[in-house]
Amino acid sequence: MPFVFPEEPPPPAPPLLETGQYVWEMFCELSSQRGHNNGVFLPLSWADIYAWSTLTNTALTPWEARLLSRLDLTWRVAYARAREPLT
What is the pTM of this model? Predict the structure, then answer.
């Protein structure tokens, strides 16, 4: 018998620190342009991040670029896990 989730809504996500909000907004904008192949989202490459940065005239520090890359990996893992069938 499959597990049935209760009808309660999930708890709200913790608030982002105000200082990190801008990085999340950059990631969301960049991620909205990502490619996909047969329904699988492709990773954001360094070239994708650089192109987005150049086209939007957004100067990134090295740590911001690395953070965007790590956010991408974390997002793709979470997305893949959410799509796994419940057993």
Answer: 0.74
Residue with tokens 């790590």: 70
Half-sphere exposure of 79 (CA within 13 A, CB side): 12
Determine the 3-state secondary structure of 35 from DSSP: coil
What 53-60 contacts at long range (C-beta under 8 Å, 24+ apart), as own/partner pairs, is 56/29, 58/26
Distance in Å from the first CA to the final CA of the chain: 9
- State yes or no: pLDDT of 80 exceeds 90: no
**Inside any domain, residue 16:** no
State pLDDT tens for residues 17-69.
Answer: 677 888 999 999 999 998 888 878 899 999 999 999 999 999 999 999 999 99
Amino acid of residue 9: P
Residue 27 is assigned to a structural domain of this protein:
no
